[in-house]
Structures are given as C-alpha cells and as structure tokens.
Amino acid sequence: MIWAVLRRELDRQAGPLTVVDVGGGTGGFAVPLAEAGHRVTVVDASPDALAALTRRAAEAGVAERVRAVQGDGDALAGLIPPATADLVLCHAVLEVVDDPPGVVAAVATALRPGGAASVLVANRVAAVLTRAVGGHLDTAAALLVDPDGCAGPRDTLRRRYDADGAAALLSAAGLAVEQIHGVRVIADLVPAAAAEADPESLLALEMAAAGRAPYRDIASQLHLFARRPT
Ligand SMILES: C[S@@+](CC[C@H](N)C(=O)[O-])C[C@H]1O[C@@H](n2cnc3c(N)ncnc32)[C@H](O)[C@@H]1O
C-alpha cells in the first residue's frame, strides 16, 4: 500500500527527487528509491542501522545517491536545510521520539512548498485488538485507556495513534493530509497458510480494504500522505 501511494507521487513529481527518510534504518525504502534515481538522505539514530544501509546501498550500486546521517529525529530541524526536500518519509518513528509535534514540524519545514510527507504510525486500535485476541486482556485494557496508547513501562513503543489523532498531528504542523490508508488490514489476520496459498488474492483484498473505513481503522499501521501547501 505504501509503495502504491509513493509510486503515484514519484510519477507526479518529475525528475529525480530529493528525499529525506527520517528513521530510515537499514534502507528498506531508501535503497529502492535510490535505485529509481532519487537522492536519499537517511537520518537515523542507530550507527548499526546506518552501517547496514551503507553496505546495502553499495551492494545495489547506488552509494553515491544515498547519504547516511546519524542523528536523532528530534534534532531533524538542525540536520536538513529548510524547504529542500521533495519528499520526506517518516515511517515508524513518531512512536519512539521525545517530541512528535516537533518532529512533524521539522518534517514540514524540510519540505519545499508542494513537497510531500509519507508518515507511518502504529495504530492503537489494532494493538488493543491484537492483545485481546491473544488473551492479554489486562494489556488490551491498559492500551485502550492510556492517553498515549502505551501499554506501560515494558511496551516497546511510547505511543500509538488513531487515524484522527495522526491526521491532527500533521495538520497542526501546516501539512494538508491528502490520504490515509491502513497498512496490514487483512494480512495480519489471515492464517499464514492462506496467505502463502494465494498471495495475489491477499494483496488485492488488502489494497481494496486499505482506504475504506472501518477496515482501514483496524489496520496494524496507518499511512498518512500529506503535502506542504504551495
Ligand atoms: C521500526 S524501525 C523503522 C525503519 C524504517 N523507517 C521502516 O519503516 O522500515 C525504526 C527506526 O527508527 C530509528 N530510530 C529510533 N529512535 C530514533 C530517533 N529518536 N531518531 C531517529 N531514528 C530513530 C531506529 O534506529 C530504526 O532504524
């Protein structure tokens, strides 16, 4: 789903793009984007992840188009010059930073007017349902009422979002939210054997459900696509 949305944007914006991937890790998005001719700066807190990214980019023959910057997402504003990025990815990072509104504001500042942000966040609704289905009713109950969607001190994430909350976060930074999709609406529900037996049908169903409420709203993750107004 995410790639379907990104491909439409890559087709829309002509020419090689300047891309920033905040918390881009080992380059799961950065390297394919560089292979497609775009210049990608990955900002990540982990030196190990960046080392893996650098190796992966070299193996793919795109090292010259991938820049690895070690830094905290919370410090993004000081790492990327304002209004220079055509596309900023911020996937699975807002759940762990200190200051999500500050990071989103820095994403908006890094974008040139008309540039786009691709933001992926963990969905609190899915986390509640998954814990409940797994029999962890206390954890599900804690997640349901916690103001941040965190299950407690042992939770690996500091917060989770719902679609409205995530959209409000981006809007508050001056970004215009254009699309919200669920990621892994169906895929995390079907038995592995069914997924392996017919992956094409699973993909088709996943894509059909991704943009439709209420299916979208129970997906494991929420993908928001937003634009800095011109
Ligand atoms: C779950 S991974 C997501 C990687 C990639 N964005 C993706 O979606 O495949 C989270 C990444 O964020 C990085 N990270 C964690 N805390 C961070 C922070 N405060 N600032 C920047 N990156 C951070 C981690 O090193 C890791 O590479």
What does this protein structure show overall?
- The mean pLDDT is 96.
- With 230 residues, the protein is α/β, with parallel strands linked by helices.
- The chain has helices at residues 2-12, 30-35, 47-59, 100-110, 124-133, 137-145, 163-172, 192-197, 199-210; strands at residues 18-22, 39-44, 66-70, 85-91, 111-122, 176-183, 221-227.
- Strands 3-2-1-4-5-7-6 form a 7-stranded mixed beta sheet, with helices on both faces.
- It is 38% helix and 22% strand.
- It has 9 helices and 7 strands; from the N terminus they run H-E-H-E-H-E-E-H-E-H-H-H-E-H-H-E.
- Strand 1 (18-22), helix 2 (30-35) and strand 2 (39-44) form a beta-alpha-beta unit.
- Helix 5 (124-133) packs antiparallel against helix 6.
- The chain is globular, with a radius of gyration of 18 Å.
